[in-house]
């Protein structure tokens, strides 16, 4: 996995650009390998209570043939249990059922907890807690703005034209994204 990430990112890193890695690394082995390649200088840890995650995911129903997704709490179908366009029955995937989500969260927590501790020891992690993105996002944005302002100010005060810092990593507390639904998690984005 590290070879895939670095292969995609090496040109940007060599040119002095920073990287935003979303959902990577996921394991200690990946974190250690990443540290051999890059200077990770900021990590954002988003903590959402497990019960909130379970409620949101288990609220998800799909129309199997089209892949349309409904959520009874924020995007409900017009008629309970039926697809808006075809009127066909909606189903809940087995891995979206509360007991499955809880098992996934327990596994995810066991793997990511050491990552949080690792980045805490390095002094590069900032944890944000909440249940709504509209509340957490402004806090994350302000923290990032503050961190980047300090870094830019330091660069100019030392006469440095561009920072050699190379990555910002997010370690998210919650269910690993389902690759069938969110291709953005797989992408490395240079900033």
Tell the overall outline: elongated
CATH architecture: 3-Layer(aba) Sandwich
Q: Stretches where pLDDT falls below 50 for ≥5 residues?
A: 160-191
Q: Could you tell me the strand content as a percent range? A: 15-25%
Q: Largest sheet, described in full?
A: 5 strands, mixed
Number of helices: 5
Helical fraction equals 40-55%
What is the CATH H-level superfamily?
P-loop containing nucleotide triphosphate hydrolases
What is the typical, i.e. mean, pLDDT? 79
Give the domain tally. 1
Beginning-to-end CA distance, first to last residue: 21 Å
Order of helices and strands: HEHEHEEHEHEE
Whole-angstrom Rg: 20 Å
CATH class: Alpha Beta
Task: Name the structural class.
Answer: alpha/beta
Q: How many extended strands?
A: 7
What name does CATH use for the topology?
A: Rossmann fold
Taking strands numbered 1, 2, ... along the chain, how are they ordered across the largest sheet? 5-2-6-1-7
């Amino acid at each position: 996995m590290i070879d895939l990430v670095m292969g995609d990112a090496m040109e940007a890193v060599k040119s002095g650009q920073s990287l935003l890695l979303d959902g990577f690394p996921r394991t200690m082995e990946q974190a250690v390998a990443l540290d051999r390649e890059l200077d990770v200088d900021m990590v954002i840890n988003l903590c959402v209570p497990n019960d909130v995650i379970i409620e949101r995911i288990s609220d998800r129903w799909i129309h199997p043939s089209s892949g349309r997704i409904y959520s009874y709490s924020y995007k409900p179908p017009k008629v309970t249990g039926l697809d808006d366009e075809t009127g066909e029955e909606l189903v809940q995937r087995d891995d979206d059922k509360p007991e499955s989500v809880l098992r996934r969260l327990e596994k995810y927590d066991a793997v990511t907890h050491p990552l949080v501790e690792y980045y805490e020891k390095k002094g590069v992690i900032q944890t944000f807690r909440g249940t709504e993105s509209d509340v957490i996002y402004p806090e994350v944005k302000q923290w990032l703005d503050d961190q980047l302002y300090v870094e830019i100010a330091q660069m100019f005060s030392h006469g440095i034209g561009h920072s050699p810092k190379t990555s910002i990593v997010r370690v998210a507390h919650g269910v690993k994204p389902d690759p069938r639904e969110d291709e953005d998690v797989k992408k490395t984005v240079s900033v």
